[in-house]
Please model this.
Amino acid sequence: MTNIAVILAGGIGARVGGNIPKQLLPLQDGKSVLEHTLNAFEQSPHIHEICIVMHPDYITHAEQMLLANAWQKVRHIIPGGKERWESSVNAIRLLSERREARGNEVNLLLHDA
Model:
């Protein structure tokens, strides 16, 4: 059984305003909300893999974070949809195809970044 955390970070944070999505804004310690979320799942012994769903315009931000933090469990960074449900479906489709190819059971844990 493989537990995969799907981090839904595809929004643009329009209600917050600013130049970047709220999940990328730095907190007092300099790390973003997304980094804190990924650190928590990276450290969990119950999570085997992580999939990040990002707005297509910000995928490079997620890739840069991945390089800077050297997370080992992040296996996918995929584009989100226009709505959260579309982002969820994108991840479910990708990971379902992967499960079928590997032939093992997968639990998906959807988390709003």
Remarks:
- The helical segments are 33-43, 59-69, 84-102.
- The chain has a mean pLDDT of 87.
- The beta strands are 2-9, 49-54, 74-79, 106-112.
- The radius of gyration is 14 Å.
